[in-house]
Fold each of these.
Amino acid sequence: MTTIQQLQAELEEAENLVRLYAKLGDTYMAIGKREQAYAKRNEAIAQQSRVLTIKAVLKSKGQN
């Protein structure tokens, strides 16, 4: 697997985690578990930062 393919796979994984953590945060908030909701939302934000970093690397390599 090339570096570009690895980055694209990592990007897909990170995007999926963003969606998952955001949904979990919403679910926790809906059932009144604020602390867990904020923790999952923070994880979603961290993964979003990862997504943006990977996209920037791919763009610099001319792949996006």
Amino acid sequence: MKNLSNEKYDFKTGTYDYMGNKISSLGATVVLKRPSAHTHINFDDISDAIHTIKDHVSKYDTKVELDKMQDEYLNSEFGAWGYSGT
């Protein structure tokens, strides 16, 4: 199995730390990507990693829309830091 990378996720065979240093040749590492965040997960079982990627990809468009709405709110007058509401 080879490593895969695209705008939605990274998949690497073996386990890696969050800085990209290889820890072990066993298992798999997945980085789930979305506009507001990335989530790094190490798996002992490659099939669990693939299941997680499938779930993430099936929900990706919804997560992107939620990120856009959050970004719009936080950049609005009402979502700005220090807004008192009065």
